[in-house]
Amino acid sequence: MTAELQHADNVIEAELLSANETGTGAVETYDSATAAVLAALDQGADEHLADARPKKTRTSYARDWELWTEFHDWLAGQTGHTLPLTAVTKGTLVAFVVWLDEMKTAAPATIDRRITGVTVTARRRGTEVPKQATKAAREALKPMKLDPARAARGRGKAIAATPAHLKAMNTATPARPQPEVGRRRGTQELPELARLRDRALATLAFGIAGRSEEVSSLDTEGITQVAEGLEVHVPSVKGRPPRDVAVAYGENPDTCPVRCWLAWKEAAGLTTGPAFLPVDQKGRLGTRRLGPDGCRLAITRAAERAGLDVKLTGHSARRGLVSTGRKRGKRAEKLRKQGGWAANSPVFWEYVDEGERWEDTATEGIGL
């Protein structure tokens, strides 16, 4: 506020209704210093109201805006033209709804909240969002809310990925379904660079039992090749401690995290910076880190291309390493450290139980 008062001469004079002339149409013109104080107070009020929101709401709004930015990147790839983030119009908001539904497979309730998050953030940044824009976006959302399959999205536990799933994903045809643009819908060949990235991402996520946020945060210089495989530094995410894990060479080239990572690294020319980057439909490599949702989507779309009868998500790899590892006799403590679970994590021990379900079952060998 002090800095703004020092620049009072640069503030346009404010014209406000005089209290004793209300209704007469007369206005009172304030000098530049008074206008500066009023402007600073208005800004302070906006900041106070924003800070007064619960932390979870502020975090959600920030994530909504990240997705809005990602949507604009995708739209630029589709149209060949980059729109400003301030272009919050009927057309862009409706397209955002469709993108969230088809590209992110978001639940209708989540999409509804993201419309609010983008609108609130845009207005806070000084963008005027027409009422007809938000109205049109929610009109587009109405039929989605009536679809039971869409409403069920995001519910239940993630399906555990298996090496068989990974092999099917990594050897599937590169054709991928496309969201509807206008009246056109169809499939598109996945660029080779994107295919190599998705192979590396899925297998490495499995190898480190990584959360999508952790996979997104990986850096190229944090993944070191050694004789036995890869030494991977998983950075701290959301206050969780960082960890260093070992990922050995796999038996199958199509599911080996080491070989898949090296192939992607060479093809993308990675030396430093983010380990995983966006790739557009023309095979052009982006420069911005692939976000957590992008990592989740890469795994989900790869499973869809492979025609798997289960839906895999970003958490499937994390769950899958534990359940598969226990079936193959891996020590629980080793698996726990690989994924960075706390020693008393009920979720981790649930995954262990899942892997041990058919080991010495209660009905086995009792004379039935």
How would you summarize the topology of this molecule?
Blueprint lengths: L1 H5 L8 E3 L9 E3 L2 H21 L2 H25 L10 H13 L5 H17 L6 H15 L2 H4 L11 H8 L4 E3 L9 E3 L2 H17 L3 H6 L5 E4 L2 E6 L8 E6 L8 H12 L23 H14 L10 H12 L4 H8 L6 H10 L13
Antiparallel strand pairs: 1-2, 3-4, 5-6, 6-7
Helix pairs in contact: 3-5, 4-5, 4-6, 5-6, 8-12, 9-11, 9-13, 13-14, 13-15
Q: Main attributes?
A:
globular; 368 residues; disordered N terminus; two-stranded antiparallel ribbon; mainly alpha; three-stranded antiparallel beta sheet
Helix content: 40-55%
Structural class: mainly alpha
- What oligomeric assembly is this protein in? single chain
Number of strands: 7
**What is the strand arrangement across the widest sheet?**
5-6-7
Note the total helix count.
15
* Unreliable stretches covering 5 or more consecutive residues: 1-27
Mean pLDDT score, rounded?
A: 85
- Separation of termini? 80 Å
Order of helices and strands: HEEHHHHHHHEEHHEEEHHHHH
Gyration radius from CA atoms, angstroms: 26 Å
- Beta-strand percentage? 5-15%
